[in-house]
Amino acid sequence: MLIWPATRFVAGEDREAAIAAARGLNARGIAVSLDLLGENVTERDEAASARDAYVDILEGIDEAGVDSNISIKLTMLGLDIAPRLAEENLRAILEAAEAHGNWVRIDMEGSPYTQLTLEIFQRVWESHRNVGVVVQSMLRRTAADVERLISMGARVRLVKGAYREPAPLAIQTKAEVDRAFDRLAERLLDDGNEPAIATHDDARIRHVIEHAERRGIPPDRYEFQMLYGIRATTQVAMVERGHRMRVYVPYGEKWFPYFTRRLRERRENVTFVLRNLIRR
Ligand code: FDA
């Protein structure tokens, strides 16, 4: 059961709640990516249910006529059981998305999955163009990954990275992760295919806008993305200033790992929860 205060970050538990949240955001000029919560499934049946639930939400999006694509996690589609299984389930979702004229983003999970995720992305890319992937600026490998993805013409979402990673693989200081983010954003803006810049960080957003203006890259060639429940006023303000904004809307019963990642990221999010607990 979805309990308050997770409701700040999670739209609800079912398809209706997800579509209602998408409709509300669309009314403010904001596009959506719906994310059915869940990760690291260990049973084939669970992976098949996740696949079917994604096919179902694609149908729901089409029926409701909302402006939303979907975001998926390969460990929810069976990556821990067998990469081939996750790939088969992903292909079924991509075909359903194609039938509905829709599009799928593969989220990036922790570093044990980076290589596998990129390999699966690359394989499905050969036969499907309605798919994109995510890269994390905290990982040392990402500059090379971005160059390869640019040369493929792939659509990339850039994030800082939400998982704790060891020093040999990942930059450990915020200032350096931010610098890497700015450099990668520049590369994606200059030569990428409709990059998505996913951050709530004003300094990163400013850097992107200034770089795009310097290079004469119009705002419709890239989009900003933020998470549901975070900086909602800024999301609307950016649309009003002529920027494209897409909000990532998680829904579903398996909300706990996502919720704890959001709390770990920022003291204010913990303060928000504590303040509301006291108020209750
Ligand atoms: P950071 O956490 O460094 O915050 C920087 C600044 O942003 C703060 O100083 C503040 O100014 C502002 N800010 C942040 N949170 C705020 C709040 N609650 N209220 C007010 N201001 C706030 N990660 C991943 O590993 N794989 C993935 O696939 C994805 N996918 C994804 C999609 C989308 C659309 C987004 C926005 C993010 C992800 N992420 C992700 C998560 C990402 O990696 C990262 O953990 C979070 O976005 C937090 O990092 P920020 O870039 O916002 O900056």
Task: Walk me through the structure.
The chain has 10 helices and 8 strands. By secondary structure, the chain is an alpha/beta fold. The protein has one domain: TIM Barrel (Alpha-Beta Barrel), CATH 3.20.20. An 8-stranded parallel beta barrel has the order 1-2-3-4-5-6-7-8, surrounded by 7 helices. Helix 1 (15-27) packs across helix 2 and helix 9 (256-265) crosses helix 10 (267-279). The radius of gyration is 18 Å and the shape is globular. The mean pLDDT is 94.
Q: In this structure, how is the largest beta sheet organized?
A: 8 strands, parallel, barrel
Q: State the strand order across the main sheet.
A: 1-2-3-4-5-6-7-8
- By DSSP (H or I, 4+ residues per run), the number of helices equals 10
Q: Any low-confidence stretches, pLDDT <50, length ≥5?
A: none
Q: How many extended strands? A: 8
| CATH class type | Alpha Beta
Total separate domains: 1
Helix content: 40-55%
Element order, helices and strands? HEHEHEHEHEHEHEHEHH
Distance between the termini: 19 Å
Q: Give the radius of gyration.
A: 18 Å
Q: List the bound ligands.
A: dihydroflavine-adenine dinucleotide
Could you say what the CATH topology is called? TIM Barrel
Structural class: alpha/beta
- What fraction strand? 5-15%
- The CATH architecture is Alpha-Beta Barrel
Average pLDDT taken over every residue: 94
